[in-house]
């Protein structure tokens, strides 16, 4: 029987067909495809990549598949196995639609499909969710086999995922995670950018980004809230009144996570310009309502922004062009910019994450694949020009912050004028150093998420109301130190529904601390038990209090020398795994690049049971306080306050506190 005649459930249960080859689907030019990867394998390594690919299929099909996969490797630099794309539409369905023996497994299937939904994923046919290379799987055989395993899984088994490859179902127990995910976990000496190119082309590892390879991406909404908080607090830094009206925010990137920026600008109340070189990405965000208009002329872009600024009205503009062209023109015209940043995928500068100025997208993509050394020269020259223009505007009063995309890091490597006078630090702070670290992470506030597994928008509306009610109650007894955070989050949840944040699954993000996350989750679980809403999947961005060790982003406000260690992320994923998570993940890379960060995440299904009640409290408490404890030991005063407060509330929590040395005493010694 061909897969075309199978139902959705039957095709999932079939996995990789053993008795026939599926028909080859047509290559769809209307879909946003991944750039061609550079040729990096030797002839012997290409043969190895082909052997690795063919091991998924019965030998009788090898003679037909071998030339097909070899051609994919030659043409695209990777073997994606396009033939094995499923015949059904890949999207999040109601949890009841999935063929599964375990409800937890069905929830994971839902989340995997959401990550690959065409409305959500950046390059869906290449199984890439966001960031240019943030993959859910390396190829379609892995997708098919994983979904089949999940359909067969019981609550006495755990599926172990090796960088997209389902190693298999192993005997386990109901209290264990149903899935363990690792992505790109390399021996440290093999974690350079070209190592990713090589080993990914061989089909043995992948870059999972943060929430791509951990099945917890919820579209650009995932970062809208954090960006909104960042913009609001950036305005508070430059204006004592905190007013956002009439302020101009200029940035770049409309791909995956970066696509949230114009929406966040509108919610915060500023005028924003976001540059994007890829027309498909820019117009996709416009069609989805995430940006108000797309303008292709640089002067018209600036003029339009100035009109809205003069009126004090929030408005978002996508400039279809290179960000450096925009910055340089703003310098020439002496435009006053209040806030500046960048969120292009500079964690991936040599493979489509950032593009050279004065070159068409097509020419740049061709050079990237055919002459990578020359492409790198153009990228680094562009970064130098980029930094020069930013420097001139900051001299005129712009507040510029690195948005954790490795802009400062890659600019420094390109020889740009981006270093502070001491030659060690950057001229500009990371937004975590200035805003998110001391104002949110140190107090335990971070991007808590949930997905209504019923797929019913009414369930999302009900969960919004529940979350708002819980936060309002908690705020009444919150200390003054976190009143602003509570107020910002209540404001967010009130506006989230009207601002139409949903892309893909019925999902929501909300910054909350451990107290808030536990109380909200418990209220959800009770509502499920009463039959008021369907099951809910909990999760978070890896960009959080505890999940990520990243010296240039999440842990950039750690100053005791431990920002280059990864103990916190590893402890986090292990600790969550035995405290009740439904699945856990740990990745090399994510946000700022391969080899630059270790990050982990989790997912948890709430089904209304007493068991879920126990797990949510046990796991969410640790998931947050692990990071607060580490930040406290680094002598961050906000974290010391937060962990002391938590120990008063939780008798079983005993954390080692730092003794603070006198600076004068230290300075006398050296």
Automatic annotation (TrEMBL):
<dbReference type="InterPro" id="IPR035085">
    <property type="entry name" value="Urocanase_Rossmann-like"/>
</dbReference>
<feature type="binding site">
    <location>
        <position position="403"/>
    </location>
    <ligand>
        <name>NAD(+)</name>
    </ligand>
</feature>
<dbReference type="Pfam" id="PF01175">
    <property type="entry name" value="Urocanase"/>
</dbReference>
<dbReference type="GO" id="GO:0005737">
    <property type="term" value="C:cytoplasm"/>
</dbReference>
<dbReference type="Pfam" id="PF17391">
    <property type="entry name" value="Urocanase_N"/>
</dbReference>
<comment type="similarity">
    <text>Belongs to the urocanase family.</text>
</comment>
<comment type="function">
    <text>Catalyzes the conversion of urocanate to 4-imidazolone-5-propionate.</text>
</comment>
<feature type="binding site">
    <location>
        <position position="209"/>
    </location>
    <ligand>
        <name>NAD(+)</name>
    </ligand>
</feature>
<keyword id="KW-0369">Histidine metabolism</keyword>
<feature type="domain" description="Urocanase N-terminal">
    <location>
        <begin position="90"/>
        <end position="216"/>
    </location>
</feature>
<dbReference type="Pfam" id="PF17392">
    <property type="entry name" value="Urocanase_C"/>
</dbReference>
<dbReference type="InterPro" id="IPR023636">
    <property type="entry name" value="Urocanase_CS"/>
</dbReference>
<dbReference type="InterPro" id="IPR055351">
    <property type="entry name" value="Urocanase"/>
</dbReference>
<dbReference type="GO" id="GO:0019556">
    <property type="term" value="P:L-histidine catabolic process to glutamate and formamide"/>
</dbReference>
<dbReference type="GO" id="GO:0016153">
    <property type="term" value="F:urocanate hydratase activity"/>
</dbReference>
<keyword id="KW-0963">Cytoplasm</keyword>
<dbReference type="InterPro" id="IPR035401">
    <property type="entry name" value="Urocanase_C"/>
</dbReference>
<protein>
    <recommendedName>
        <fullName>Urocanate hydratase</fullName>
        <ecNumber>4.2.1.49</ecNumber>
    </recommendedName>
</protein>
<feature type="binding site">
    <location>
        <position position="276"/>
    </location>
    <ligand>
        <name>NAD(+)</name>
    </ligand>
</feature>
<dbReference type="GO" id="GO:0019557">
    <property type="term" value="P:L-histidine catabolic process to glutamate and formate"/>
</dbReference>
<comment type="pathway">
    <text>Amino-acid degradation; L-histidine degradation into L-glutamate; N-formimidoyl-L-glutamate from L-histidine: step 2/3.</text>
</comment>
<dbReference type="InterPro" id="IPR036190">
    <property type="entry name" value="Urocanase_sf"/>
</dbReference>
<dbReference type="InterPro" id="IPR038364">
    <property type="entry name" value="Urocanase_central_sf"/>
</dbReference>
<dbReference type="InterPro" id="IPR023637">
    <property type="entry name" value="Urocanase-like"/>
</dbReference>
<feature type="binding site">
    <location>
        <position position="591"/>
    </location>
    <ligand>
        <name>NAD(+)</name>
    </ligand>
</feature>
<feature type="binding site">
    <location>
        <begin position="131"/>
        <end position="132"/>
    </location>
    <ligand>
        <name>NAD(+)</name>
    </ligand>
</feature>
<keyword id="KW-0520">NAD</keyword>
<feature type="domain" description="Urocanase C-terminal">
    <location>
        <begin position="441"/>
        <end position="644"/>
    </location>
</feature>
<dbReference type="InterPro" id="IPR035400">
    <property type="entry name" value="Urocanase_N"/>
</dbReference>
<feature type="domain" description="Urocanase Rossmann-like">
    <location>
        <begin position="219"/>
        <end position="435"/>
    </location>
</feature>
<keyword id="KW-0456">Lyase</keyword>
